Amino acid sequence: MARRALLTAVAVLAAGGGLTATLLTRGDSSQAADDAPAALVNTAKVTRQTLKDTDTADGELAYGTSTTAASRGAGTLTWLPESGQQISRGQTLYQVNNLPTTLLYGALPAYRRLAEDSEGQDVLQLEQNLKALGYDGFTVDDTYTSATAEAVEEWQEDRGLEETGVVELGQVVFAPAAVRVDSLQAQTADQVTPGQRLFSYTGTTKAVTVELEASDQRLAKKGATVTVTLPDDKTVTGKISEVSTLIVPAAGQDQEPETKVEVIIALSNQKAVAAYSLASVDVTFTAAERKNVLTVPVAALLALQEGGFGVEVAGGDGTTRYLPVKTGLFAAGRVEISGKGITEGLAVGVPK
Q1: Contact call for residues 122 and 174 (beta carbons, < 8 A)
Q2: Predicted TM-score (pTM) of this structure
Q3: In order along the chain (352 residues), what is the average pLDDT of each group of 10 residues?
Q4: Angle at 349 (CA atoms; ends 346, 352), nearest 5 degrees
């Protein structure tokens, strides 16, 4: 029996989960309007499953992004840590003129001299660190009082600094947590000036860095869970902790700069990666997930003449009919569908 004129979507799952449909004509439009579709030849069943839009990218296992430690004053560099050395709160980062610069914890970098009547987040950070190091007699808040100054004098005495009660710029460096020295840019006995780079440092826990194409930005959702496959094929779970945009300079005169998305992934199991100081890994991102939904192969979708999509199913007399459907997530060559008459196990037509 001749087929009724119908537009068929030859569907291709495009990057980003979109659908590109090339519209073709199924059957001969010259046939009578009441001609019914012939019986299905090739079918696939509607399946209930969890559908995930995933993608895998290359990553680098290391210690995350690095930060540069620079001298705040002029003088002779009298001590530097070694590459790979870990430094925690209250310990010395480096010494100029035999005076220590101390690591303290805090998100806001040290940017000014702190003295009585100073107020702000940096004062709060300082007082939190003094308390954590065992100093007391002051209220932990964002105001630098005379009690704070007294605690600072005690700390300065313990550190071998002049007991002024004032924290001069360069006496402390704030970092979010303990640090690991990455590489040195200076050496002991160098004459240094303000702003001169001394060394770079990272965090002490290993992380994975991935550079994504700008078109894959949908994958980079802060807080999202990812799967990291190590060189020995073992997997560990990670969580996206940082997402930033990078501009990569052009490689040649005839090329333009590229926009990349840099993703930093924190790892939940540090023991699993302890054997690797540096390694190439695979990172599997999940951009979207739909649980317990009905799906069919993307190729089963038909673009109906009246608009929207449908699927072709068997009728009761050896012919077929068309059921309109609402589409959801596209992933892994399948598409989420719903609509009247769409049930698990239903056979739908697909191209050979």
Answers
A1: yes
A2: 0.65
A3: 38 41 36 48 94 94 92 96 96 97 97 97 98 98 98 98 97 96 96 96 94 92 96 96 90 84 93 93 95 96 94 85 95 95 95 85
A4: 135
